[in-house]
Design goal:
Number of helices of chain B: 7
Radius of gyration of chain B: 26 Å
Helix content of chain A: 55-70%
Structural class of chain A: alpha/beta
Strand content of chain A: 5-15%
Number of domains of chain A: 2
Largest sheet of chain B: none
Oligomer: heterodimer
Number of strands of chain A: 6
Order of helices and strands of chain A: HHEHEHEHEHEHEHH
Shape of chain B: extended
Largest sheet of chain A: 6 strands, parallel
Mean pLDDT of chain B: 85
Structural class of chain B: mainly alpha
CATH topology of the largest domain in chain A: Rossmann fold
Number of strands of chain B: 0
Distance between the termini of chain B: 11 Å
CATH architecture of the largest domain in chain A: 3-Layer(aba) Sandwich
Strand content of chain B: under 5%
Mean pLDDT of chain A: 91
Strand order of the largest sheet of chain A: 3-2-1-4-5-6
Number of helices of chain A: 9
């Protein structure tokens, strides 16, 4: 069809088809994922924080909902769902912060849904989803006050960060909190590797929903990523071999 | 009633998402403006315009939320309430000055250039110290092979990028400069491409989950 990028549409349909396929076979052939140290440790520290009356903080980063960098924050909302389910009945439930107004509203809606599902809506507070500052560094400047004043012992960074992510992780380390940090930007990942106790490398941030048992769609989507990655790797290898043989240029 | 509302939000989100997404697959210069696909593209532009407006409204709501959080803290006199009080005073003062004098006035620009910019620049400078300390902490606390390779590579690139190395001729210096170039242009670039590929795949499936209304961050 003239004027329509059919290749793009076919690739998109491939993703949808694989997602439905892996969702269908999830019960009969459940996926086994390699352990990711950060997510494994997160389950334990959340339980300990709830028992000790300490708070869990999840940062959704400084990316905008309408920007191209919103995907890691959307993945962060899946992690927020899982954390909120475990801390709903705690004296100090999870607090989610962001540097974007629209993302703060999404965090509030996510938390509200979890409280509603747990029939604990009266315990929900709209200020548990917050915008800390409208610019990346004003957001980070507010973090030490939040970490110090709200008894935070688990500090999770799951969103879009630039260089300010390193400061955000370091503030958590100085507080003596458990720090799990991931983002989509390769350079920021290098900074987080140095500053965070448990860095999430590559696309591990998008695996949070699957590892924290948010639902079978999250497990299926992780399997789609792996399957498509294998297809791409196969294509690259075949292309390299054909190029070496002089078949293609 | 609740189910009806949920379906309405989901239908709106999915419908809007599909229209915007389809717009990306259309090459508008080859499509007549009055055709169905042309209309979809026009609708996509309209929705994107609305999204920008809504994001601006959301920023206002976010700022109100910020004010509310700190107001609550001050009224309860919780830990760190004095910082919250300073924030509220600065918030109200800046807002009033901006509303009365306009955002481009000399006073507002002076406040921005003399307080906001230096504070943010200082935090950027703090980052250099933070990263140096984090490098030492990494070697001290996480003594595995990957961490040592990480710190070693960072040091080699740092030494190789220094003005003394790049400007000096000789076997020893050209070795470091060459090693640095190989690390940056081959090893790091290859690794970064692999990471970007994984991130792109993760972004696509995350977007698809929202588009298929499996993930509904807009609530019920």
């Amino acid at each position: 069809m003239s004027g329509v990028d059919l290749t793009g549409l076919i690739i998109l349909l491939l993703f949808v088809g694989l997602l439905i396929f892996f969702m269908t076979i999830d019960r009969r052939r459940p996926a086994t994922f390699r352990p990711i140290k950060g997510y494994e440790a997160l389950k334990g520290v959340i339980e300990r924080a709830v028992e000790a009356g300490e708070r869990v903080h999840l940062s959704l980063g400084t990316g905008s909902v309408i920007g191209t960098d919103c995907a890691p924050a959307l993945a962060g909302l899946a992690i927020l769902t899982s954390i909120a389910e475990k801390t709903t009945m705690s004296d100090k439930p999870v607090v989610a912060t962001t540097g974007d107004g629209a993302m703060a509203i999404l965090a509030q809606d996510t938390l509200r849904k979890v409280y509603s599902d747990a029939r604990a809506l009266p315990r929900y507070s709209p200020i548990s989803g917050r915008m800390l500052g409208p610019t990346p560094f004003s957001y980070v400047a507010n973090l030490p006050i939040l970490l110090g004043s709200e008894d935070i012992s688990v500090h999770v960074l799951a969103g879009s960060f630039g260089a300010e992510g390193a400061l955000a992780a370091d503030f958590g380390e100085r507080q003596g909190a458990f720090v799990l940090a991931g983002t989509d930007d390769a350079q920021s990942q290098a900074l987080l590797y140095a500053t965070a106790e448990h860095p999430l490398i590559g696309e591990e941030i998008f695996a949070g929903g699957a590892y924290l048992n948010v639902g079978r769609v999250h497990r299926a989507s992780l399997r789609v990523q792996d399957a498509v990655r294998m297809l791409i790797i196969t294509g690259i290898v075949i292309g390299a071999v054909l190029s070496l043989l002089g078949v293609i240029r | 009633m609740k189910i009806g509302t949920y379906l309405l939000w989901a239908a709106m989100a999915v419908g809007t998402g599909i229209i915007v997404l389809l717009g990306y697959f259309v090459q508008i210069d080859q499509i007549p403006a009055d055709s169905l696909i042309g209309n979809i593209f026009t609708l996509r532009l309209l929705i994107m315009g609305w999204a920008v407006l809504l994001a601006a409204v959301a920023l206002g709501i976010g700022l109100f939320n910020l004010f509310l959080v700190h107001w609550t803290k001050v009224s309860r006199q919780g830990p760190g309430w004095k910082y919250s009080a300073i924030l509220i005073v600065a918030f109200v003062l800046t807002l009033l000055l901006g509303l009365i004098l306009g955002p481009d006035s000399r006073v507002v620009l002076f406040l921005f250039n003399s307080i906001q910019v230096p504070v943010e620049t200082s935090l950027m400078a703090l980052l250099a110290i933070t990263l140096s300390l984090a490098g030492f902490r990494l070697v001290a606390q996480r003594r595995d092979l990957i961490s040592l390779v990480f710190v070693g590579t960072a040091l080699l690139v740092l030494i190789g990028s220094g003005p003394g190395i790049l400007s000096t001729e000789g076997l020893f210096f050209s070795f470091f400069a060459g090693l640095r170039n190989w690390l940056v242009q081959v090893a790091a670039a290859g690794g970064a491409r692999g990471i970007l590929l994984g991130v792109a795949l993760g972004s696509i499936v995350t977007g698809l989950r929202v588009l298929l209304a499996v993930d509904r961050p807009y609530g019920e």
